[in-house]
Amino acid sequence: GAMSFGKSKARLINKDKNKITFKDVAGVDEAKDEVFELVDFLKNPKKFQKLGARIPKGILMVGAPGTGKTLLAKAIAGEAEAGFFTISGSDFVEMFVGVGASRVRDMFEQARKSTPCLVFIDEIDAVGRHRGHGLGGGNDEREQTLNALLVEMDGFDSQEGVIIVAATNRADVLDPALLRPGRFDRRITVSLPDVRGREAILKVHAKKVKLAKDVDLSVIARGTPGYSGAELANLLNEAALLAAIKNKKRIRMTELEEARDKVRWGRERRSLAMSEEDKTRTAWHEAGHAVLNVLLKHCHPLHKVTIIPRGQSLGSTMSLPKEDVLNHHKLQLLDTICMTMGGRIAEEVYSGDISSGAAGDIQQATKMARAMVTQFGMSAELGMVQYGGDNEYVFLGRDMAQAKDYSEDTAQLIDEEVKRIINAAYDRAKQNITDNQDKVKAVAEALKEHETLDASQVEEIVKTGTFSKPNGGSDNKKGMTGAQASTPASGDVSDKEPPETDSGLGPNSPAPAPA
Ligand code: ADP
Ligand code: ZN
To answer: Which residues contact ligand 1 via a Cβ below 6 A?
Structure first.
């Protein structure tokens, strides 16, 4: 039901075509509460006008991709029976100076003709970045576009029945001029859903598919910390596809679990031809992680370990936070870094050689150690000081121009401290693996034979040194698991980046549990 306008590139979804309402949006109750009144503004601007109230013109929605910002904006329009214009900030950014600016003017003109309506500008940061800090100095086109947007925002009157909603996940890079009163002066945060939110979102989307009776969505919600609404919607759809491929009438837990892993870490690549040598090396690598995971007290509990390739990785060790991770603790971070070292060390024990398969582990461990030192105040040496702001290593423009807020001496201290943490974790991991070499070997051998082991199987080997229960493995019924990280394929440095971990270390993210 979308129409395209020649010049502006904005797409209009007419009010009779937009069926989205608030009941389609779940798990983001705070954000929903905040936008409730916007419906009233759109439906009944006169009511506010009479009282002399100033209706907000611009609302900025801030949140990670897939948290439902577009959906929420659509629901506002749907509830208010208003038209819905959508355009992406990147559509404004053109090669030719002046084109973006004329598109902005055109879009506002269109919007005025179709009141009441809501204009949704996705990725506002593409136009709205801080001026004068672009890569290579100024960017005339972008600045002209931004100026046009500011002029239009100032020029229209929200009594006309137009509300502008802009979305971004990087509010910190926006030009302050955009955030002034009368422009995008309302900010609504759309967060990743917590466990109850995830269940609610799953329920909304489960209405569209057929689930088996024994499917318990709360179990899936518990096993997906850090998942966005979009990922949860995708999970159900992937599970439905899997069930159809298997000729099942209904979606079972097995399909949901498989879909969960696929949505986050890419599809299993059972067909990837792996040499015996690669398989054995991967088995040792993962065995190193898995044995440490079981031995170290403060890691998130092991869920399963596998040498079935998935996405970019040849194998993975998955651990499961018991609940949403709201905080990171020092002992947990140190043990996790230590576990991360286990893959490389086990490889070396096995062959006396090492591979590039630990690149992802190294990246993740470094990130964690650096955050401990520069953001979490967990290094006695550096103290409870934040170094480098929290957006030090973000992309483009402003960040590159921004000077470090600490001295060269401090930079050196930070590097030393990060290295000290990692080296200590490495030594501890090496000691543990050396002391338990026979167990690592037994896990590696079991992995080579069965490809996937669940936690109880690894625990048994670590406890008794032998493996007596070859069933279970990948088909376990324990339900969904939490965090997982993976090892990039070894032996091919040229085109395999270490996996991009959004796991970051934000308060809402699941603890990174490296493989
Ligand atoms: P964003 O704009 O924040 O990137 P979207 O609104 O485009 O996210 O989300 C993409 C899809 O994911 C939606 O169309 C919907 O199917 C699903 N989704 C995301 N968030 C939610 C939510 N809170 N409730 C229900 N579904 C959601
Ligand atoms: Zn690894």
So the answer is: 25-28, 63, 65-71, 167, 201, 204, 229-230, 233
286 is catalytic: yes
**Residue pair 299/272 in contact by the 8 Å Cβ criterion:** no
The C-alpha angle with vertex 344 and arms to 343 and 346, in degrees rounded to 5, equals: 65
Q: Is 120 helix (H, G, I), strand (E, B) or coil?
A: strand
In eight-state DSSP terms, residue 85 is E
Helical residues (DSSP H) of 266-407, grouped into ranges: 276-295, 330-351, 359-374, 397-401
**Tokens at residue 345, please?**
């060390």
Residues β-bridged to residue 60:
166, 187
Q: What's the CA gap between 150 and 156, in Å, rounded? A: 10
Concatenate the DSSP letters of all residues of 233-300 into one string: HHHHHHHHHHHHHTT-SSB-HHHHHHHHHHHHH--B-TT----HHHHHHHHHHHHHHHHHHHH-TTSP
Query: CA 283 from chain center: how many Å?
Result: 28
- Reading the block at residue 173, the tokens are 């890079």
Angle of the 408-435 helix axis to the 330-351 helix axis, nearest 10: 60
Q: Which residue from 202, 196, 273, 192 is spatially nearest to 232, judged by alpha carbons? A: 202
Choice from 71, 84, 236 to test ligand 1 binding pocket (greatest atom count within 8 A of CB): 71
Query: Does the pTM of the predicted model rise above 0.85?
Result: no
Instruction: Give the dihedral of Cα atoms 479, 485, 490, 494; nearest 10 deg.
Output: 130
Q: What is the pLDDT of residues 30-89, one digit of tens each?
A: 999 999 888 988 888 888 888 888 788 899 999 999 999 999 999 999 999 999 999 888
**Which residues have CB less than 5 Å away from ligand 2 (the ion)?**
343, 361, 487, 515
- For 353, the 3-state DSSP assignment is coil
CA angle 71, 75, 80 (to 5 degrees): 155
